[in-house]
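User: I'm putting together notes for a lab meeting next week and I want to include a structural view of one of the chains we've been expressing. I don't have a solved structure, so I'd like a prediction I can at least talk through. The sequence is below, exactly as it appears in our construct file.
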Amino acid sequence: MNKGNLNKKGKISYRPYLVSSNKKNAKKVVINRYAKGSNKYRAKNLSENIYKSTEIVDEDRNNDEWIDIDIIKEDENYSSAKNTYKNAQKNLSENWRKISPKLFDIMIENNAINKDSKCFKCNSPAICYCLDCGLNTYLCLECNTLYHKDINLFHRKVFISIIFDKEEIKLPQLCTGFCEHEIKEISIINLKGIFKAKFPTCEGLVETLIRHKLFPSTPINPQVAFSFELFDIYQELLLEAHVSYLSFCRVLESLFSDQDITRNIYYLFKSAFHQYLGLKTMIENTINKLFSSKSQFNCPACPQPEEKNSKIIIALDANFQLKRMKSAGSNIGERIIEESFILNQNKYDEWVQNSINLSSLNTLNINNNNAQINVCDSHFKAANQTKANLKSNYLDDTGIFGSTCRHGIPLKFINLKGIGERFSLAEYILSDLHNMFYEDSSTFIVLYDIACNLHSHVEKSESRLFPFKSRFNWCVSIFHAYAHSMKCQLNYHPRACNSIGLTDGESLERLWSYLGRFSSTTRYMRPHHRLDILEKGIQHISRKMISNLACNLVKRFKNAYKIMNVSVKILKEMEQMHGIDESKILYYIQCQYESNFVFRQHLIGKELYFLNLMELHLYEIEISKANSERQLESLKRSRSLYIKKVEKCESDLDIPESKRWNPFNPIYSKYFHDYCERNLDLISDKLRKFRNEYIFKNSQLYNQDHIGHKLTLKIKSSIKDISKQIEINISYYEYFRLLAQENSFCKDYPKAIFNEIVNHTSDFWQILDISINDKMDNIPRIVIFNSIKNFNNLQRSKEEISLIVQELKRLYDFWMNYKIKIENKLQQLQQFNEKTTKNYGMICILMKYYKNVSKNLENCQIALNKIENYKVNNTVQVVDVPIYDLINEIEEDNLLKGDLAENLTELEICDNEECIEYEGEIVDKSKDCEEEIITEGESMDYKIV
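Assistant: Thanks for the context. Below is the predicted structure for the 945-residue chain, given as structure tokens.
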């Protein structure tokens, strides 16, 4: 061991003050662990401290709640125990649970205002209740003018003496009459500082504090209390700015440093705030349950379960930022915040176990002859179900899996308890939504990063969604679509799918940008505490998004109208210049789907026969060039395999062996021409994607924001891998190009050079983009591409406009019904015979809800009026768009925007187990990673035959 490191102090971390355990200084409180002698401990004689009046708790109390947390004093019927730290925490949790119902009632009653109250100064009838003058301070008209007009503007005090004068605060007696009560002393922490206060305990210490709008630090004999106002401020800071408990406590210490806070309030604050947050959420959930049912869909603008022939658009994704360390501890007690978004972990585990049992039963009893959906050629970590079961040595919770509607409103979430991204997570959420929408005529459109793989899984009989698979349609989220193969984009790209509008499927990426900022705090929390904070964060963002939904729908409506006008203008110009009408565009799209069958597994009939013949001829050539016996034996085995395949094809096509095709046969030449052309198109599309990724990665190295040395090395390594893939594909491309030139066809394909491939303005790409095809009426590829793109944008924008009109009407009905329900409930409470303070407190809370609902209803009506006026007075200026702009330049502009840097890390692609396989390739297989480029979602790389 290096002796030089023994005296190293290391980083001083913020932690609670300790108690000395040695004999000499037994039970002394350590205030500076790095000091020497008596300076290390708190002074015994507190009278020597000039700021003794601001001490939180007297030294006489030996059982300080922050020093010896194991000791919980007995009071009334509450239990206590002195054992290990964990037992003390369990008792603390149990005591909170017992007292919570009573505190819940009192907190509701606190919202009521005493109408018969008198002015505290002159005893005249009061007109207002001041929140800053003091607790339960009522003022008449004259006194309100006196105290608040010129004097107490900000309620701040300036003392003449340097020494802090001792000021004793006495809280008023809550009960009426002349009864006597025990006087308690407690330290109160609020936004203005720390004060010692004395007050009579009218109905119990904790209950009295709650009625004074002070929250106790512990449920049994608290010595510190926090004001509701302080907790409310921190709640907003936590949910909006993601301020941690520790940071807020440091702020309090800094603000109140002149009051000599020598004790750490971190653990007291964290425990008390968690309970306060749970009680406030309980009140909110109680109000919401009065006006909503369990069958109601969380988004009021989306179709509801009772609607028929509806289409529900759902987005799915996983987040692995929200981890939790194993070292953070285990659960103590139950969750405080009710599970409304994050589903119960035990229910999911039971569902998975039942799925496994049913899967084994189906495998034995069902002979599944259904045609399977072909999985995307790209390889993704998210789709690797084997790695999804791997356990981490350091992480207990690896992340969270969730769903939203098309507006981004959160729906259901599952905590990832030591697992990766599984298909069962998506199946469980979709199964829950399937049960909610009981109408068989309702269907779902699911957007997911790996929707192609999930679709293939659902088509299998062992999937729990297999019995009702017809209710689900699948799309890949638009941002990740370009990481998928061309045939996958043709089937799953959201711009090519009907009834989806302009939905991009990336709403969860936006939600993760909010929730991800909790990760630095929640990764060190206990399991239930972490889920409570995430649950509260989801509730908060959901409430905000629903309130702003009307305004957001208007913005989306205007954007859809703009896209529609631009698309109409471009399509009209194309029709005038090239005669491309809707029927021709539909024909081009159909040709694209037919080109989907260029892959080896789709070849049938004579195409398959030709491929096997060509492979056989190639192996015969390789046999003639073999240099070793080992190589010769391997080639002969492969040749014999293809001889069997050729004979099988000849048997199926009734071709006698004597009339077997040869390279000089015209039919063979025709198929050979199509074969080379298809492969050249396929390779050029892959080169285009690698080019885009190469440009994007290089732009990251030279952006204005300094990315750091570690990330720079990672990007350089990625660029090196991409360059290697480009070189491999260039060798494929040149092989087929030379093979085509030897047979005097396919002369439109230029020579591929690395420097020209990575330059989007090079002659190589311009020749490819303006090349023509006989099947496409001799129209340049770039023109056909733009016609298909704008045709799809036109169709989706029309769908979006229709969807938004329906959604706004649905949203207006929701707020109107909400308002009527609140009015009825208010009327019912006001007519209630037993007019208790709790009922009046509930009325005051409902009045606040009524005000917010009325405002949202008004905003919704304004949004409807704006849309109607926009339809009539549409003054959108359509910008002239050159038809012949190279799509490469558009892609380059999108890549250089730099908005995709963070999101690229969300989609990692595994190393391919097999090579990038083209028909009849003779180049050695490569095991390098094939990463696809991710570009912005307004355009779509269609493959032109």
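A couple of points you could mention at the meeting. The domain at 311-547 is CATH 3.30.420.10 (Nucleotidyltransferase; domain 5). The mean pLDDT is 76.

User: Perfect, that's what I needed.
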